[in-house]
Amino acid sequence: MTERQVSLRREGAVALVTLSNPGRLNAMTRAMWRALRAVFDDLHGDTALRCVVVRGEGGAFCAGGDISEYPSFRFEEASLREFHENEVWAALQAMLDCPLPLVAQIEGACMGAGVEIASCCDIRLAGASAKFGAPIAKLGFPMAPREAALVHGAIGDVLARDMLLAAGVHGAQRLYDAGFLLHVLPDAEVPAAAQAHAARIAALSPQAARLHKATFTALKSGGAAAQQLLATAYDYADTAEHREGIDAFLGKRPPNFRPS
């Protein structure tokens, strides 16, 4: 494993982003947050890719932050702010800004930082034994505001409040019932299912995926972003992908969406 502890591997049109912190259930170090941002910055403008799978190494997704590092920076306001705003949130924002669909392959522990990373993904699949929570109130500190808002928006008010106020830890079925997960699968089936879902996305129009993601972001932001969306919503009219998709349907053949 490289020093970065966040790897990127391309398999055709699908990128596999893997978190790795052996022995710590892939808990995020400061270096890993910086590496996660760098990886997603690298994905911008890569027209050969159609989808990204985010996963953890060794049967766990991410057990939260690597607490062994915390005494070195968390007790000074300036360094604490630097960590959350310029390392953690910068990485999460890079994920949110990624124009490619993101699929979370969730196995085992998905706690704290793991829930935040999963919340940035568009589609989440989990194993039946996966566990979700953010019990940081046991450690004497809250989740940073923008991170808490991200998690709250993804998992809903009831579970967000229980995770943050009562240190609640919940199973995959409860997160499925809350709408956070698309599928709960037998643990052994999760990797193949996530990659099959990514391959399904990769076979579709990348233009449509990119524009759908832009729509979701603009409508969530509201205001000027939503107005800009309405002003440019039909710019794709005279594009090769638009023509190819309709021509393929009328010709009763599979579409061939080439990289633009």
Query: What's the tally of helices?
Result: 10
Residue ranges: pLDDT <50 for 5 or more in a row?
Answer: none
The main sheet comes to:
6 strands, mixed
Helix fraction by DSSP (H/I, runs of at least 4): 40-55%
Class by SSE composition: alpha/beta
User: Using DSSP, what is the number of strands?
Assistant: 9
Strand content: 15-25%
- Rg from alpha-carbon coordinates: 19 Å
Q: What form results from the Cα inertia axes?
A: globular
Question: What is the average of the pLDDT values?
Answer: 94
Terminal CA distance reads 33 Å
Query: Numbering strands along the chain, what is their spatial order in the largest sheet?
Result: 1-2-3-4-6-9
Describe this structure as you would to a colleague.
This protein has 260 residues and is α/β, with parallel strands linked by helices. The chain has ten helices and nine strands. It has helices spanning 30-43, 77-96, 113-119, 145-155, 157-165, 172-177, 190-202, 206-221, 223-232, 240-250, and strands at residues 6-11, 14-19, 51-56, 102-106, 109-111, 123-127, 131-133, 169-171, 183-185. Strands 1-2-3-4-6-9 form a six-stranded mixed β-sheet. A three-stranded mixed β-sheet has the order 5-7-8.
Which short descriptors sum up this protein?
single chain, 260 residues, alpha/beta, three-stranded mixed beta sheet, 10 helices, 45% helix, globular
